[in-house]
Design goal:
By secondary structure, the chain is α/β, with parallel strands linked by helices. It contains eleven helices and 14 strands. Helix 4 links the parallel strand 4 and strand 5. Helix 1 crosses helix 10 and helix 4 packs across helix 11. The longest helix is centred in the C-terminal third of the chain and has 28 residues. The protein is globular and about 50 Å long. The structure holds nicotinamide-adenine-dinucleotide and (2S)-2-hydroxybutanedioic acid. The site of (2S)-2-hydroxybutanedioic acid (LMR) has 10 residues, from helix 9. It catalyses: (S)-malate + NAD(+) = oxaloacetate + NADH + H(+).
Length: 330
């Protein structure tokens, strides 16, 4: 039996936490032979609910689950964790943009960054899910200077998976046949879902679909607006798909992407593809040996360059707004 890995889930009494904890304990994130100890954090008003989640995890008799720690103390929660999935925060409600939850959420990420830096295992891999995901990840990075920037990422894999799903539905293919779509930029409605380098059953997506109007119009807006539509339909934001995509993100980061396949991750920008530097931007990445690298050399036409510019500008604005919120709170 392998040594268990300590996995932190913040906001664990919430709806994503409830969907995510059993998936991690079933091996969907770290592998089918990797035992885990879950560190579940929430705030004091959710403490009882968190205990209920722990009871259910025990009741499920999950073979890979080597322990569950529930706590409302962030320093206890971050102790020795090798993987941290940051879900805690306030979700957006119908009619709100992700920026509207900014002030509430960025301050959480500032304080939890310091705790992770102090207590997490060396080499901790961090995935920020809570919105505004890119900017929360940036604030976490700025406030945990001893954690390498490459170890702090945000979730745009849900948007990536949504794009795969839309293409598969359109052509009537299995989702596994669709590869190499890209989500560029922000996990917001300014993101650009790009199929120019993607294939379905080995054929370029553009040739398989033969409907440029759909690809430039309905496809893009469906992926961009999917989060808002789910909120309208369910009265709550996506949870099972967010949890499943968080597992995909971490699994590929740790275990690698198949040769020739890339996925989308929000990572600290080095200015590739003219994205602004010093923000967390979603790029196409390949993963190997526990590290991600941005896929280089993709041809970008003027239309796509314009979309990348717009989403990059939004992230620069979000960063300024976040810093302003933090200054006002200090
Ligand atoms: N990146 C993505 O693809 C994506 C997808 C879906 C949802 N989200 C975001 O994920 C976040 C969680 O969504 P949800 O539906 O699970 O919300 P939820 O309200 O059901 O759960 C959030 C939990 O976080 C807890 N929390 C609040 N402040 C905390 C703190 N300081 N420390 C620890 N826990 C804290 C709350 O008590 C709650 O239990 C939201 O910000 C949502 O917008 C992101
Ligand atoms: O859109 C939201 O606010 C929730 C989440 O980010 C999503 O994409 O489903």
């Amino acid at each position: 039996m392998k040594k268990p890995v300590k996995v932190l889930i913040t906001g664990a009494a919430g709806q994503i936490g409830y969907a995510l904890a059993p998936q991690v304990a079933r091996g969907a994130m770290l592998g089918p032979d990797q035992p885990v100890i879950l560190h579940l954090l929430d705030i004091p008003p959710a403490a009882q609910s968190l205990e209920g989640v722990k009871m259910e995890l025990i009741d499920a008799a999950l073979p890979l689950l080597a322990g569950v720690l529930t706590t409302t103390d962030v320093d206890e929660a971050t102790q020795g964790v090798e993987v941290a999935v940051m879900v805690g925060g306030f979700p957006r409600k119908a009619g709100m943009e992700r920026k509207d939850v900014m002030a509430k959420n960025v301050s959480i990420y500032k304080s939890q960054a310091s705790s992770l830096e102090k207590n997490a295992a060396q080499g901790v891999k961090v995935l920020v899910v809570a919105n505004p995901a890119n900017t929360n990840a940036l604030i976490l990075k700025e406030n945990a200077p001893s954690i390498p920037a490459e170890n702090i990422t945000c979730l745009t894999r849900l948007d990536h998976n949504r794009a795969l799903g839309q293409v598969a539905e359109k052509v009537g293919a299995r989702v596994t046949e669709v590869k190499n779509v890209i989500i560029w930029g922000n996990h917001s409605s300014s993101q650009f879902p790009d199929v120019a380098h993607g294939t379905v059953g080995g054929k370029p997506i553009k040739e398989a679909i033969e409907d440029d109007e759909w690809l430039k119009g309905e496809f893009v807006s469906t992926v961009q607006q999917r989060g808002a539509v789910i909120i309208k339909m369910r009265g709550m934001s996506s949870a099972l798909s967010a949890a499943s995509s968080a597992c995909d993100h971490m699994r590929d980061w740790i275990h690698g992407t198949p040769s020739g396949t890339f996925v989308s991750m929000g990572v600290f920008s080095d200015g590739s593809y003219n994205a602004p530097k010093d923000i967390v931007f979603s790029f196409p990445v390949e993963c190997k040996g526990g590290r991600w690298s941005i896929v280089q050399g993709l041809q970008i036409d003027d239309y796509t360059a314009g979309k990348l510019k717009a989403t990059g500008e939004e992230l620069v604005e979000e960063k300024a707004l976040a810093l302003q919120c933090l200054e006002e709170q200090s």
